[in-house]
Amino acid sequence: MARRSLALLLASSLALMAAAVASADSWLYDKFNTDGTVRTQYDASGQEVAMLSLDRSSGAGFNSKEQAARRRRVGHHPVGREQLHALQLLRRRLAVPPGPPARVQPQLS
After folding, report:
1. Which domain of life is it from (predicted)?
2. Helix, strand or coil for residue 85?
3. Is the pTM of this model over 0.85?
4. Rounded-to-integer distance, Cα 49 and Cα 38, Å
């Protein structure tokens, strides 16, 4: 009977630890887009840390999902609102259709 309760206690504690590890990873993937090998662990002080696997042939990284959504709302332009507004005014004055700038081929004479 004691062995059965010990085995049950061990199994339940392992399941609880596995759930804790799974939930620890979720904060990273809920808030960030990741590329490459990115994982979370606890350091010696018990603090959660993100670990990136880097070597000579590959890399890893992460960026904020919130900032990516904000960039999409602005229109994929890597400039601020003021520059974007100035660009829109300039396009209206020059009667340039909206969208990304067209590539101009240089004319050689």
Report:
1. Eukaryota
2. helix
3. no
4. 10
Predicted confidence at residue 4, as pLDDT, reads 64
Alpha carbon 12 to its chain centroid, in Å, reads 33
Specify the range with the lowest mean pLDDT, choosing from 10-19, 61-70, 77-86: 10-19
For the stretch 83-108, pLDDT in tens is 777 777 777 777 666 666 556 565 66
Among all chains, which residue has been given the structure tokens 């979370």?
A: 40
Q: CA quadruple 86, 92, 95, 99: dihedral positive or negative?
A: positive
Query: Can you give the C-alpha Rg of the chain in angstroms?
Result: 26
How many Å apart are CA 79 and CA 101, to the nearest integer? 14
Q: Which two tokens stand for residue 71?
A: 């960039």
How many residues in the chain?
109
Half-sphere exposure of 58 (CA within 13 A, CB side): 7
Specify the pLDDT at position 93: 72
